[in-house]
Amino acid sequence: MRILLVEDEKGISSAVCQVLKKENFTVDPVFTGADGLDYALAGIYDAIILDVMLPGMDGFEVLKRLRGEGIKTPVCMLTARSGLEDRVRGLEIGADYYLPKPFQMAELIACLRAITRRKEDTPVMELSFGDVSLRQQDAKLVSKTTGQSVKLGAKEYQILEMFLRNPRQILPKETIFDRVWGYESDADYSNVEVYLSFVRKKLAFVGSKLKIRASRGIGYSLEEEA
Ligand code: CA
Question: What is the per-residue pLDDT for 136?
Answer without folding.
Answer: 77
